[in-house]
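Dear Dr. H.,

I hope your travels went smoothly. While you were away I took the liberty of generating a structure for the chain from your last submission, since the lab meeting agenda had it listed for discussion. I wanted you to have the full record in hand beforehand rather than looking at slides cold. The sequence, exactly as received, is reproduced here:
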Amino acid sequence: MPSLQALIFDVDGTLADTERHGHRVAFNQTFAAAGLDWHWSEERYGQLVEIGGGKERILHYINHDRPQFPPPPPPQTLESWVAGLHQDKSQRYGDLLRQGHLPPRPGVQRLIQEARSAGVRLAIATTSALPNALAVLETALGSASAAWFEVIAAGDVVAQKKPAPDIYRYVLERMGLPASACMAIEDSAQGLRSAMAAGLSTVITTNGYTEHQDFTGAAWVLRDLGEPDRPCQVLQGSPLPQGYLTLGDLQGDRSQFFSP
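The corresponding predicted structure, in token form, is as follows:
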């Protein structure tokens, strides 16, 4: 079993709680500005968040909730119209982030700094658009944080989004590492399926939208990564000696995280 050489982080819901009061609000602002009578409640968005990618989420909503929605006038296609709508949403989301403070989830900054100090490489694998991912990094981790990550794979860099394994395979190829030398940090079942399909062992940190999902196969399922003065709750996996997830926990007997 190779030693741990890299941590690959998801962004939304993993680095910071961005979905409920970030992306959902930006979508609704965009719909209102476009003259649409659409409004995604917290409950409906909790269902839509299962769809990977913002453009895909809008198309799913149209197909299932607004089947009579008229097609846009030529030469636009529905897909190109949705892409324009999503571009406006991304701008509004970035504005929301820059207007306020978006703290990282407990333990995120600590674990990242542990990895940096130990020479463990870092990467991002997210279905969010690149500007959105960079805005979260800047707001939650600081203006210089994007430089900490060797690869930032985001948005449409691959054709198939999570739960397909494409985004993780892209990161592994760019880093020149086998999956067995890396671990993924995710927050959702679709993220877990994506990482596992690429051969990665995975740590899950749940949030309000994902806490009831099926995380079979995860190395750990935690409420969050925890801090020395704020122990985390282990929902699945072995107890954490320090009460919070450390780089040492991830560097232990890693063979236990892989199926034979």
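Two observations you may find useful: The radius of gyration is 18 Å. Residues 78-99 form the longest helix (22 residues).

With kind regards,
E. W.
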